[in-house]
Write a structure and sequence with these properties.
Shape: extended
Number of strands: 28
Helix content: 10-25%
Radius of gyration: 34 Å
Largest sheet: 6 strands, mixed
Number of helices: 5
Distance between the termini: 59 Å
Strand content: 35-45%
């Protein structure tokens, strides 16, 4: 399927007008039996074509998602059918839909004649744009004689995308990177101190600038007799107590005979944040109840690191309350372990103790993975040489009697088992898909045999016709 989609995209003739305020919409085409009749175009308010595609040969019944980048404005999507019978329903159930980034339908259709046009509007998404954030690191920051400075920037935008990151040396542009990871290298050859910054531009032309990073080029190595920096936490005080939910500011004082390039703030071994400019500080927002061991690590321009003394802080729950990690709106750090069953939205537990989590309502996750061992392995056995397919005639008789595929549980059986076993049903469905391929291969062989016989009969028939004409 991946190769099919790639070939579809490769054959797509798509014209996209890009701007500083573009947004991506998606055109979904579900083809009928004759996709070679289908094409589409999007025109702007000046009737200029800004995107188009089609026709699509050899893709009957397939679904194609086409991403389209457009700026704010009014547009018209027109879908054409050269046979004047639309995409549905005499020759397959085809359709189309156009959705914006929020999955809102802008245009849709299926049954029409030669064409169907729908006008839609894309609003300006940049009216309340938040500027992107960017941080810069350089290596090395101390060079003797000459050397190459490797720059690396990390950029993000909470309400859009990063279109480019520019690298500056003493406020002069030296390079641009259009894609992550954002990197650039510059060769320093002259003695001096240089200030590097990075500027990130988002899709709305908003620009965020990093804190500067200094690079020192000297005629001799300044780090041969380097002294490590001194660092201490000046706020909060050791053994202090604060109330949960407050914003706790952690401040550090750091000095060096060279320059302090960064101060990192830790709770135990967990990095909380990094500050690259003085005054060095980090704000722990809405800190939850717990006990904390804060330290600060200062790094100088020669790479020497010093860790401050530990500052112990106790964060107590608000007066009159305690924090139970299983209670509503209680923020905890680390893992939560419970030996018994857990119900979310329900307390209706089954008698089967092998199930530990019960949820009433939907479950939404970025990724879910099931162990194959629990499902009895994968369905590769179908393609084994000794695998026996049920004849199609027997399959038809079975379906007529049982009203479900052989080897698949019936609706009554699944209800009796209390629902679907996702792992097992997925393996069974894969088994049926692979069996279908074997049936298709078998039918193709029979068709090729019949085609060869037809060709042979045609040849013999032509010979007989010639002989008959000669006899006359």
């Amino acid at each position: 399927m991946k190769h099919v989609v790639l070939s579809l995209l490769a054959s797509l003739c798509l014209i996209v007008v890009l701007s500083a305020q573009t947004q991506t919409i998606t055109l979904t085409l579900i083809f009928d039996n004759y996709p070679q009749e289908t094409r589409w175009e999007i025109t702007n308010s000046s009737l200029a074509i800004v995107a188009n595609g089609g026709t699509y040969s050899g893709q009957a019944g397939l679904t194609l998602n086409v991403p389209i980048s457009l700026g704010a404005g009014t547009y018209t999507l027109t879908v054409f059918d050269s046979a004047n019978d639309g995409m549905c329903c005499g020759y397959g159930s085809g359709s189309y839909s156009l959705k914006n980034a929020s999955n809102v339908v802008l245009a849709s259709g299926a049954a029409f004649t030669s064409s169907q046009a729908t006008t839609f509007t894309l609003a300006n998404t940049c009216t309340s744009n938040s500027l992107p954030t960017v941080s810069l690191s350089a290596s090395p920051t101390a060079i003797t004689g000459s050397g190459t400075v490797s720059l690396s920037a990390s950029a993000s935008d909470i309400d859009g995308t990063i279109s480019k990151v520019e690298f500056y040396r003493n406020n002069v542009l030296i390079g641009t990177d259009l894609s992550s990871p954002y990197t650039f290298s510059y060769s320093e050859t002259a003695v001096g101190t240089y200030s590097y910054t990075a500027k990130a531009t988002d899709n709305c032309s908003g620009v965020g600038t990093s804190s500067p990073v200094s690079v020192v080029v000297s005629s001799s190595n300044p780090c041969t007799s380097n002294t490590a920096p001194a660092v201490s936490i000046s706020q909060p005080a050791n053994n202090s107590t604060v109330t949960a939910g407050t914003n706790l500011q952690i401040s550090a004082s750091a000095t060096d005979n060279g320059t302090v390039t960064q101060v990192q703030f830790y709770n135990g071994t967990t990095l909380l944040g990094t500050s690259t400019v003085s005054p060095f500080s980090y704000t722990y927002a809405s800190i939850p109840a717990d006990t904390y061991t804060f330290t600060a690590k200062a790094t100088d321009n020669c790479g020497a690191v010093t860790t401050s003394s530990v500052v112990n802080v106790t964060v107590s729950a608000a007066s009159g309350s305690t924090c139970n990690p299983w209670a509503l709106n209680c923020t905890t750090i680390g893992d939560i372990t419970r030996t018994g069953r857990v119900g979310i939205g329900t307390g209706n537990f089954l008698s089967d103790a092998s199930y530990l989590l019960y949820v009433k309502g939907g479950i939404r996750a970025e990724k879910m993975q099931l162990e194959l061992s629990s499902a009895g392995g994968w369905a590769d056995y179908v393609f084994a040489p000794n695998y026996k397919l049920m004849p199609l005639k027997q399959v038809a008789e079975y379906l007529k009697t049982n009203r479900h595929l052989p080897g698949m549980a019936s609706g009554t059986e699944m209800e009796a088992e209390g629902g679907l076993d996702v792992g097992k049903i997925t393996v069974k469905q894969q088994e049926k898909i692979e069996e279908l391929f074997l049936y298709v291969i078998e039918l193709n062989k029979k068709m090729e045999t019949l085609q060869n016989k037809v060709k042979k009969l045609e040849t013999e028939n032509n010979i007989l016709r010639k002989k008959t004409l000669q006899q006359k």
